[in-house]
Fold these 2 entries.
Entry 1:
Amino acid sequence: MSLSKRKRGLLREYVNYTCESCKKHEDKVGELEPHRIRPNDEGGTYEHRNIKMCCKKCHDIFSSAQRMARGIQ
Ligand SMILES: [Zn+2]
């Protein structure tokens, strides 16, 4: 399951096009991506409360932190 373009757009609007992690605007960091707080393989869905909108850089950091936490490199 992935997020529709429309829903992604609404979520971006909801956070004022600003990364929830580093607080930088899309103008500077590019289009925000939905990061699932609880990952896909642990049953995490694209529900609003499971999503943090963040820039690619922060998304990469979150994703690798999650992988490391689970012992997967
Ligand atoms: Zn960021």
Entry 2:
Amino acid sequence: MVADELIREIKTNVVMGRVDSSDEGYDGKMEGKPGVSELVRDAIKQDISGKRLIDALSEAMVTVGEKYDSGEYLIPDMLAGAESVGTAMDILEPHLIHSDVKSKGTFVIATVEGDLHDIGKNIVATLLKGAGYNVKDLGAGISAEKIVEAVKEYNAEFVGLSALLTTTMIKMASVIELMESEGLRSKVKVLIGGAPTSPDFAKKIGADAHCRDAFEAIDILRDITP
Ligand code: B12
């Protein structure tokens, strides 16, 4: 398969929620055809860049969201898409990480309390590892107290917060407030991201930066790191 076709197929298969060739997919007709695992391995063999693959996976999840929004997809269909992206990232991770890179600092990352969306956060964590940060990924649904505890424990220079729900994004403010009351705020740069967040929101809650995606996070970190 040529590169453009492979990228198109990867997107289609994420939308169909097909981890591998044994899945029949949302349409129920695709068993036996290559799924996301096989296609991503093929893309790696063809030297398609990690950025292009991650952009394709992210775009496909936007389509999944639109289908959920329109009522065509239910939660298990969103989960199937999420699982296929998770598997793709597991396959991609060793190709994105270079163990010979000197650590650029410790980066604590988490999805905030009440929010279980972790695909975007996982992509950011993987890419930051690849860019040479010592990433401590706390997981999803993490309270402000646990995040601040981890900042202290790991003596982190950076904190990354993710939220995908309009109802949970405000928890980012709680993390920053707690960091302030514990006297940690000036020692740590706080980056936020996730679909409902924005540069204005980052400013409002006192975060250092909003990042549209994982690639922008790397650029911003380069600019703000002394
Ligand atoms: C997959 C998905 C799920 C999966 C999550 C699985 C998982 N393991 O993550 C499941 C099925 C569990 C789920 C559940 C729910 N979901 Co949901 N979900 C989605 C969906 C389709 C995709 C999200 C995603 O993975 N995107 C792909 C990734 C790559 O993009 P991303 O997260 O934005 O991350 C990128 C950037 O934003 C940025 N970024 C993100 N975080 C960070 C952090 C830092 C530090 C930085 C630097 C950058 C950064 O970089 C990332 C990589 O480039 C979205 C729709 C959408 N378009 O977003 C809805 C969506 C977010 N869900 C929604 C809803 C309503 C729910 C539920 C409440 C549904 C329900 N009734 O139960 C529950 C909530 C559960 C909970 N408590 O969290 C709504 C939210 C609406 C709102 N306004 O708040 C959306 C928008 C769907 C919709 N259109 O209605 N969901």
